[in-house]
Predict the 3D structure of the following.
Amino acid sequence: DAGVTQSPTHLIKTRGQQVTLRCSPISGHKSVSWYQQVLGQGPQFIFQYYEKEERGRGNFPDRFSARQFPNYSSELNVNALLLGDSALYLCASSLRTDTQYFGPGTRLTVL
Amino acid sequence: GEDVEQSLFLSVREGDSSVINCTYTDSSSTYLYWYKQEPGAGLQLLTYIFSNMDMKQDQRLTVLLNKKDKHLSLRIADTQTGDSAIYFCAERENTGFQKLVFGTGTRLLVSP
């Protein structure tokens, strides 16, 4: 079975632009969580979605938004990009809201 | 507050045992996890322990949990060069949703 997939792998944007990152969970998993990992640090929680509803949100500004689709895939949107948004964005899926399995991540560089 | 702490770096020789330590703050955490991250990759789940256990063994991996001191450790027996990576411990907070709080990671370097 395929694991968590994310696209794109790498992305380069300029300040002020908007970006959309995509995630497909493991087949049968209904929950998706998003994390931001800045270089040299551990991942920081951004959102959790379960059954297409937002269940939790971390300490991130409103420029960050997400949604989950009927097929349980998810998108993370970031508006008005700042240099500090440069990071590895990780998606994790879980069956319900239990053990989380991570995808390979999307590396975002903001110039 | 949420603060998971780990030592930054550990260097061992191939064949030795490695012990990576972690302290956490949320005494209500139900599960504690160990993830491995290789360069440029995502996080690979290694193992986890439920808070009512004090030890879990899984092949070369042994997890020890001291709830009184909020201390978690991961022992890797017979460490191999392929074990070189960053290891993260994470606690799962009981916030109504399942948020993981990660430490800063321990870089393990295994030399031949």
Remarks:
- Chain A has no helices and eleven strands.
- Chain A touches chain B at residues 4, 31, 33, 35, 40-45, 48, 50, 55-56, 58, 90, 92, 94, 97-105, 107 (CB under 8 Å).
